Amino acid sequence: MNILYDARVDGPLPVVDKQALLLALRTAVPDLEILHHAEDLKPYECDGLSAYRTMPLLVVLPERLEQVQTLLGLCHQHGVPVVARGAGTGLSGGALPLSQGILLVMARFNRILEVNPQGRFARVQPGVRNLAISQAAAPHGLYYAPDPSSQIACTIGGNVAENAGGVHCLKYGLTVHNLLKVEILTIEGERLILGSDALDSPGFDLLALFTGSEGMLGIITEVTVKLLPRPQVARVLLASFDRVEDAGRAVAGILDAGIIPGGLEMMDNLALRAAEDFIHAGYPVDAAAILLCELDGVEADVREDCDRVATVLRQAGAREVRLACDEAERARFWAGRKNAFPAVGRLSPDYYCMDGTIPRRELPRVLRGIAELAAEYRLRVANVFHAGDGNMHPLILFDANQPGELERAETIGGKILELCVAVGGSITGEHGVGREKINQMCAQFNRDEISLFHAVKAAFDPKGLLNPGKNIPTLQRCAEFGALHVHHGQLPFPDLERF
Amino acid sequence: MNILYDARVDGPLPVVDKQALLLALRTAVPDLEILHHAEDLKPYECDGLSAYRTMPLLVVLPERLEQVQTLLGLCHQHGVPVVARGAGTGLSGGALPLSQGILLVMARFNRILEVNPQGRFARVQPGVRNLAISQAAAPHGLYYAPDPSSQIACTIGGNVAENAGGVHCLKYGLTVHNLLKVEILTIEGERLILGSDALDSPGFDLLALFTGSEGMLGIITEVTVKLLPRPQVARVLLASFDRVEDAGRAVAGILDAGIIPGGLEMMDNLALRAAEDFIHAGYPVDAAAILLCELDGVEADVREDCDRVATVLRQAGAREVRLACDEAERARFWAGRKNAFPAVGRLSPDYYCMDGTIPRRELPRVLRGIAELAAEYRLRVANVFHAGDGNMHPLILFDANQPGELERAETIGGKILELCVAVGGSITGEHGVGREKINQMCAQFNRDEISLFHAVKAAFDPKGLLNPGKNIPTLQRCAEFGALHVHHGQLPFPDLERF
Fold first, then answer.
1. Which B residues, 213 through 272, put their C-beta within 8 Å of a C-beta on chain A?
2. What pLDDT is attached to residue B495?
3. Which helix (H) or strand (E) segment is B321 a member of?
4. CA-CA distance, A149 to A375, in Å (whole number)?
5. Among A300, A391, A472, beta carbon nearest to B304
6. Is the torsion defined by CA of A36, A38, A44, A49 positive or negative?
7. Would you indicate the residue range of the signal peptide (chains A, B) (predicted)?
8. Does residue B364 sit at the A interface (CB-CB below 8 Å)?
9. B2 vs chain A: nearest CA distance in angstroms?
10. Which H or E run contains B291?
11. What is the pLDDT averaged over residues B266-288?
12. Is A113 helix (H, G, I), strand (E, B) or coil?
């Protein structure tokens, strides 16, 4: 499968003499584990976006800060590109290796250095798994809020690099909102601290700039995350609708009432049927759409909010509103949602997961647009989304073995993202740009804005050695891609008025 | 008064030929209002930090974007520094003019361009006053959350430049958390959009980087802010304590219970007595400290939370807990707090307001430290703070006419900020660095970090023409200042163990 794959790295990559590099590394860092045989490199040729594959030149697995520092100094000196990765669960090819670069695997930095219940923070190494932080904090009644679907496997370093979200980020924020401090190494091996133990930090907000920068500005060596008290109770309501638009109005109604649910998720008929077949969550398979609304907090507040949300849902046209009657049913309701991607995968040999964000009010129009594009290109699209955030995950179903389907999937995927930009949204919510959406960045930003990104990148990494070819396209790429720059909706999407 | 004033601008400023510049400006932008007589310039010689004064070379009062664009192009071409300002209410000298620079007053950009109740945002020009946004949104039941004390007068452009806070930022966040999008002009006159109408934006987070950058990266020309539904009810509890430490523990207790108050403020005995004398708010004048805790939301939630908070307060040792019995009493409780600064001003000919942030858990230690420093330097210090955020505003009382008091106030102020840094906090919470705290930045950051700030600044403004000499010190200044670099508490404050 080769969907959307673009083999060109922007600009010429230097050809590195592998044997000379290996020798230099072994001399400089004798105790560093280095993989260089093809069979050892194979498992590292892709991340969670398996459609993109490249064999790295070398893989290194450091265990100590000094090893990373020396390695970076050497790469900086010799002009060798470096791609950092944690567990490799990313969905946009952000950790895709370079054939002429080193893949720096930070997985062995997996120690929890401190859990501080008074200060409500945890200080951890970058290779610690997201869920492991919450597990370590649990004895104190605390947890780390951002919960990407991959939280069992993904590492906090990768979460910071991609500014990961999750089903609870409407209420609890993205990774950037749950960080206090990040320690990094620059490509020159300098150790910097971004942020502070206090809630604000003077000077420019480099912590926010760094979060989500996809490994292009520095290598993360330590992360201090905020911990929150675990809510006393969480209840989930399931509402079913005969019309997708009504579900969209219900989302607006809940938020307009000043209620901030712990999670607010929507699935359309194709997605919910797939999930029901797979998980038997108890979803109404004849509904056009369902909403899952979780309310968490203290008992009395949650009870009150459940009543208010149920009223709003009915007013918006819900034909049925069910409160999960116990923890087991609540877990089932969520299991259906959390397994929606693999469930949809059972309907089709291949699917392509998109990650656009739109202003919430544009939900009905964008859904109509997606339906029309699906009909036009004769492909099915299942819609699963973080409705509260306006973060959509359309899943484009196709069969790569059918001639033309892959290309049609690629085309419709690009059009959906351009539609998101045209209504004032963006090409990614929580999966990042990585390698996958680098061309769409040309539609999102203008020439001056992309130049500014490069200038900021150069402030951290003047030689451009950290994860080159990801996240920020070159101006040359944009010229070749010939993007229609539908900047923040100012230039209309050609077909926007149709929807 | 000359407290903490440091007349040196970092690096040599070019000497600008005022008459030639005036002529060039009048030719390029014939309809631009320009002030150049000493008597016209006088009102602009300082901002809210009146201890720092400089007469600007010229003041310009543009009304249209194109005027600003042409002006900036001309300044860029001729190497003339530009300082932007809104209402000039800032408390750290961020809008202090330069004797060889243009003061760009954006106050006439005062139109509210759009209030969108469906999208829950308002699009406004930078000279719109903070409170005017909430007033325009009020008919839709919406408001703009950040509420600095100066909200009647301060402009949204200045709020963005300083990342302003307010008494409600514990729950509703700083300015950066309430923005969707900012349009700026670079010093070269390029128009850029940072952020998007959706909740996330791909690429580096330049919106967060820009917010709080104190006019050093670009000129704000339009701001899109988020609007929130106004809470149905708000109640405030007043708790009095015989020991300041108990009040500190109560703050931790409330937050540990998972309650996020709309506001959570502390005042010590000196501050609350001053406020009571001035406002007659009904504060217990014999208490060592009081806490004001506001709870907002829907009726039933707030009632429940009030009960829970009252329990926590009593457990922490509050000798009395009072719920404001009506709106009038609630307004009185807050009026005392909001007028604490002028109230303290009645106790002393001069006072100096600090703005340090510390990890909340360090509150008791830092309060002990401040008390000991006050005794040592024979000055009174009143403490007023956003306790929930760990943002302290110690007010140092002195009389500039008494020989030596000003110097002692200056010394103790510096020591308090260094103490904040030593316990892991920072030298500013919401007032910014500006001109005032530029030396303390040398204590907050190391050489590599300050170099990185300069590199980021250069990415936006290579010639360094935007607000030079504010926010980020030169390395030379730090060398001359001879700062003890107490970086993130790693190097101990010399006297830290005392407290």
1. 213, 217, 228-229, 231-232, 252, 255-258
2. 59
3. strand B320-323
4. 30
5. A300
6. positive
7. none
8. no
9. 24
10. strand B289-297
11. 96
12. strand
Whole-number Å distance between alpha carbons of A476 and A474: 5
Identify which of A104, A112, A199 has the alpha carbon closest to the alpha carbon of residue A161.
Answer: A104
What's the pLDDT band for B483 if we cut at 50, 70, 90? low
Q: Is any Cβ of chain A less than 8 angstroms from the Cβ of B434? A: no
pLDDT at A485 over 60: no
pLDDT tens-digit readout, A38-62: 999 999 999 988 778 999 999 999 9
- Written as six digits, the tokens of B150 are 């100066």
B57 is written with which tokens?
């070379």
| The two three-digit tokens of residue B456, written as one number | 């980021």
Contact B413/B392 with Cβ under 8 angstroms? no
Nearest to A488 among B165, B193, B452 (CB): B193
Phi, psi of B373, deg, nearest 5: -65, -40
Taking only the tens place, the pLDDT of each residue in B190-230 is 999 999 887 777 899 999 999 999 999 999 999 999 999 89
What CA–CA distance (Å, rounded) separates A71 from A68? 5
Q: Is B125 on the interface with A (CB under 8 A)?
A: no
pLDDT digits (tens, 9 = 90+) for A431-452: 899 998 888 898 889 899 999 9
What is the C-alpha separation between B256 and B309, in angstroms, rounded?
Answer: 11
pLDDT of A150 above 90: no
B389/A75: higher pLDDT: A75
In this predicted structure, what is the pLDDT of residue B124?
A: 98
Q: Is B250 within 8 Å of B316 (Cβ atoms)?
A: yes
What strands, in cross-sheet order, belong to the sheet with A179-185? A112-116, A121-124, A219-226, A179-185, A191-195
- Cα Rg, chain A, nearest whole Å: 23
Sequence-ordered alpha helix ranges (H) in B294-383: 299-315, 327-338, 340-345, 363-376
Complex ipTM tops 0.90: no
Query: What are the Cα distances from residue A384, in Å, to A460, B133, B267?
Result: 37, 35, 49
How many C-beta atoms surround the C-beta of residue A61 within 10 A? 15
Residue A344, Cα to own-chain centre: how many angstroms? 19
Q: Do A208 and B176 touch (CB under 8 A)?
A: yes
Query: Closest Cα of chain B to A220: distance in Å?
Result: 15
Angstrom distance (rounded) from CA B19 to CA B1? 32
pLDDT of residue B5: 32
Would you call A37 helix, strand, or coil by DSSP? coil
Q: Are the beta carbons of B247 and B289 closer than 8 angstroms?
A: yes
Cα separation values, B319 from A214, B265, B323, Å: 52, 17, 14
Residue B245: pLDDT band with limits 50, 70, 90 = confident
**Nearest Cα to B215, choosing from B485, B460, B462, B492?**
B460
Q: Tell me which residue of B224, B335, B225, B241 sits closest to B287, measured CA to CA.
A: B241
At B365, list the tokens.
Answer: 């230690």
Spatial separation of the C-alpha atoms in residues B426 and B444, rounded to whole Å: 7
Residue A214, SS3? Answer: coil
The values of phi and psi at residue A137, to 5°, are: -85, -15
Interacting residues of A479 by C-beta distance below 8 A, sequence separation 6+: none
CA distances (Å), A175 to each of A145, A366, B206, in order?
A: 8, 27, 16
| B361 neighbourhood in chain A, CB within 8 Å | 118-119
Distance, CA of A226 to CA of A232 (rounded, Å): 18
Angle at A282 between CA A280 and CA A283, to 5 degrees: 105
Neighbours of A307 (CB within 10 A): 11
- In chain B the domains, ranked by start, together with CATH numbers, are 18-105 (3.30.43.10), 112-229 (3.30.465.10), 233-343 (3.30.70.2190), 348-440+483-498 (3.30.70.2740)
Q: Which of A204, A446, A448 sits opposite B456 (nearest CB)?
A: A204
- Contact between A79 and A450 under an 8 Å Cβ cutoff? The reply is no
